Amino acid sequence: MVITHHGGQCFKVTFGDLTLVFDPISKSSTLPAVKFGSDIALVSRNHPDMNGIEEVTYGDKKPFAITGPGEYEREGVSVQGFLTKSNYGLAKGQGEATNTVYAVELEGMTLVNLGALADKELPQEAREALDDIDVLFVPVGGNGVLPPSEAHELAISLEPHIIVPMHWSGRGLPSDGKGISKSLEAFLKEEGDAALKTDKLTLKKKDALAKDGDIIVITP
Questions:
Q1: Organism's domain of life (predicted)?
Q2: How far is CA 53 from each of CA 72, 79, 117, 216, rounded to the nearest angstrom?
């Protein structure tokens, strides 16, 4: 399995000939839109920063789109979606928006993506289902999603093998002038700045099992 980051909350996961994408960026977003083919696309929040299904319809690939809570099965990939809340990108007068937390099982591993989550307290249904997480994608940018301290608190409580921070590249607090997001910097400080940085995460089950809450920053 290979995981790459494409800005915002967009992560591409490839395994064999299959490609899965979390929160593809739309051309209507102020973030740079993505352009690649995907077999499965998961959208946590119906917002241009995360709902670019058309942008991952490319070549001979037309993705199976998952846009909300429920149970799904596609090409050997099992997905559970849990209803949660987001305060990200709200329209004027809108109090809150729907967010979906996804648990994805593939290649014997469990990936959990918290999407544009705003509440550090997960619903009981999700808490009970999210067990033995290999990779946890957690938003750390604040401004409608979890702020760094709450993101770290929730991430640690879920006891994943690997924690991947998101919603810091192009979103969240601006950089410090050296290209380092202040949101990411604050999140890493909660852990004592102990993190591996890479532009591509290549992972097998045995690699995940060797980790214990390790933070890996995947740079776009």
A1: Bacteria
A2: 17, 17, 20, 27
